[in-house]
Queue: 2 jobs
Job 1
Amino acid sequence: MPITDTPLIATIAPLVLRNVTQRFGKHTALRDLSLEIPAGRIVGLLGRNGAGKTTLLNIASGMLLPTEGTCTTLGTPSGQLDTPQLTRLGLVQQEGRCLEWMTVRQHLDFNASFYPRWDRDLERRVIEALEVDPKRKIVQLSPGDRQKVGILLGVCHRPSLLLLDEPMSALDPVVRKRLLDFLLELLRDDGCTVVISSHILNDVEKIVDWIVALDAGEIVEDSAFDVLQESYAEWTLTSTNGALPTTFNEPFVINHQGDARQALLRVRTAEPDAAARFAVTHHAEILTRPLNLDEMFPLLTSQRKQKS
Amino acid sequence: MPPLLSVDHHNGVPAYRQIMDQIKLQIATGLLASGAELPSTRALSAELTLNPMTVSKAYGLLEHDGVLERRRGQTLIVSERPAAARQTAKLDPLRRHLTGAAHLARQLDVSPAQAIKLFRELLDS
């Protein structure tokens, strides 16, 4: 195991879910879900709409109590989060509720009064970077500006655990880049743990080191991002004998299109010589190309967990 | 002056690997000399706005492979490497680039002699 030059942070995992099931009437949003996120990780929480991402984040923040199972946030059962934990928790919701009648400045000052670690210098820099006008009333803000306020309220107190649910869907690329830079800064300076749920996969893949993917309320992936990058690939096959099979039985072939002379495969395998052996078996030349997160997403989020 | 590295986050190649390959290339081309100091994980990840895990993993593996070493237990420096290792370090990136060209030459039915002649032309230009 290579030695790294960052110190090992020996703390309890800031977020642990054990056998969490969440039902809303007849609908089961999360099924027997278990997840442990250690400190200092930036996790991309991915999934189709309705997969359960917002439910998971709401349970983590204590906004929702699980129907079954337990959630421990910052070392405390999520249903019992109190001041010591809440001042270290940052939450940026998809549709955050604000006090509409306040100006941005008033709302920031109001929130700051609850948090001993509110960082006025960080606040000033984020206001400038996100291009927020503090004098405007919340009720007058566009959806994009509301998201910016939500972000300000979620990060300025330097949380240890930051949960973001679609925090930047209405922001332009320039502002999004600046936000991502701030998230990295929080990680670098404070060892903050970040869980970000976003469909802007281009942004997600710039900062995360871990991927958790949900499909219909179940975790279908819980892996290091670079391991996924090294496992998924597109293989372009050119037959040397014009006789490629119509189906490939190897379990790592996820999908394939083509004919007897050439084929395009999407594969998932961590074996470094899988392509070379495949080329020999099927009498073909292989060119391999890694997949980016946009390309991996449909393959990740449509995996069915194997039930034994 | 931290090494100028450029990570493409969207090409599917893990960022740590891109950093490793670029540092190795800079060493092989002499841009990073033996004994040259590298910035700390924190400094480099701040400079390049990268997840510190990425830099940490790259540095750790380069140290494990003997490409980098620690001076006085703290600073990371470029190792002095034997001639054979330096030669391999030059040929590896070139081999990677030429693999696709070799594949294409075979597909186009261009003979090795023709392909080498072409490569020689390009080297001389």
Note: The mean pLDDT of chain A is 92.
Job 2
Amino acid sequence: MAPRRGTTRRRFLQSAALAAAGLGLPKAFAAETPDLKLKKPIKIGCQTILSGPLGGYGEFMRKGTVLAVEEINKAGGIGGSPIEVNFRDEELKVDVGVKNARYFVQDWGADFLIGIDSSAVALAVGEIMPSLDRILVVTHGATEKFNEDLVFKRHNRHCFRVCVPVYQDGIASAMVAKDLPVKRWATISPDYEYGHTSWKMFRAYLKKLKPEVEFVGESFAKFGTVDFSSHITKVMGANPEGIFSTEWGGEAVAMVKQARLFKVFEQTKAVMIGMGAAMDVLQGLGPDYPDGTWASGRYYFGYPDTPENKRFNDAFRKRWDGPPSYPSETSYTAIHAIKKAVEKAKTLDVPKVIEAMEGLELDRPAGKCVIRKEDHQAVYAVPWGQIKHDPKFPMPTLANLKVFPTDEYYRKPPFAPVEG
Amino acid sequence: MLFQGLVGLSEAMYLWLVAAGLSLIFGVMRVLNFAHGSLYMLGAYFAWVAFRVSGSFVVALLVGPALVAAVGWVIEFGFLRRVYSAPEAFQLLLTFAFVLMLDDVVKLAFGPVYQSPPTPAALSGAVVIGHSILPTYHLFILGVGTLVGLGLWLFLEKTSFGLVIRATAADREMARALGVRSSRLFTWVFVLGAWLAGLGGALSMPVRAISPGMGEFIIIEAFVVVVLGGLGSLRGAFVGALLIGLLHAYGLLFMPVFELALGYMAMAAVLIVRPWGLFGVREG
């Protein structure tokens, strides 16, 4: 049913204009970047969810990507070559994602692929990357199977990821939960790979940290759910003290609004929403976001307090008239990671760029980060925090930030199976 | 247990409002209006704008659906009317074109971010019995849905205009031969159908996330409801919506793995046993 759009005319013109702007710049701007005599332009294909109830989410990824491309092109591009970027709607469907990837590489001539929101799509597209012989940098899909199975165990070296995996949703969350006065947990989460895998991790790790906890109820909602009332009554029937949820985008907004009506926030001692600190959710809920709700994401605009993050926030606000959401940061970082790796490798030759990207260190807005050699996973810490209504900001913000050392919550090779 | 059912029924009310309009339009005009979900979406957005301007939920509920009815008039009078004599596939294509256009218009006008005004305080309470909770808003929705059902029934059964509508639905050629001006009737039926979808959208505004494309999910469920109940039958749409609501609520409770499939299984079963739907009229 979703409208099928690939490149709309407007977006095509936009990307063409971007490329043209890069080409037209005087040499003086390119002083910092040595001319590596690479092909011009370097093409990057980005796919994300751009339609339907979660489309607001993908819009933030598009904005982060465009900002990075504009900045880099203004400064001379990648090794002297301007970047041209193209967007396609992933629709969170495996077949569409695979088709987009093939289109990007085989028809449009992409040199790199970035984006992808759905874990299932990330796994499916990752699977065909070696045959397409291009590098994929995932900026949202979070399943641990991507870095642990696909890359580490099955040696798929074309796949990278610059966003935190479900370790944030499933393990860091358990580290927050162990100190909460909650013994009985239940979940309302999406009925697909991401929802199931993060709940499984949360249970396994929380049980280790606090053996007396119980998991009393679960309800998984299909993609496209607008009314969570039945899920809420079902789960609340088990009388839980805490709710763990990995709903996101417009679905998280709807769930929180309806949970408020059902007095979930009064009847339980804690509600945790793994993607609750995404800008679209903060803005979507506004005053309806209950104080004290625990939330996190793959980046939070208020953390860390570094010059890089401040600069990114300022540039983003100036370009788009509002603060960045986390897919903006991860897609921005993906483009910069590609630039750094290509300039290090001094070539677009895929195996050499892969080598350059392994172990690459980045000073990204979200903090210092290393792309692990073994599983091609970017390692950096993202805070959990509690929702607070601060009159200084037009939307709810996070307070009482909890940041854990990545060493304590990133699973490490050889990745023992998650028990439970 | 009981509350799970009531919650399911209240979810069914949105579906009923959309399905009622869809079924009414099909029954009288023989047009399968793909854009009906988009009208639901417009209802939510218009109500949201009215709420922003007036600050009153009541005004939003009155103005939102009325504006959607006006859009319905433009769609019927300006576009649909021109393709009545064309094959059904063309009518379907036209309404589908409206799905795409309205989604993009809304995206351009309001942005892709989810809008969600606060729930009115007067309806934010809840009935609590032990561990079971039923929000006031859900009771309100149940009330409104039932009232609309009663109102539609009275309108169709007790007024002369209702009689004309029923006559046209039963036998279009005969009604025309007896002097019914079907073109004007079609416009009003489409406007009424649009108003019903708009009302569903306006009611969803404070408790669901409003976003472009929100109509694309409800239209599929509304189709299931209408097929289940019988194309063109309002009673069928009502019972069908309640059935889907209950199947969803109890399905989640007792067999969560199959919950998604239950509604479609019910539809398939009806199609096999009674292809014209539970309350539909067998044609030919």
Note: Chain A touches chain B through 47 residues (CB under 8 Å).
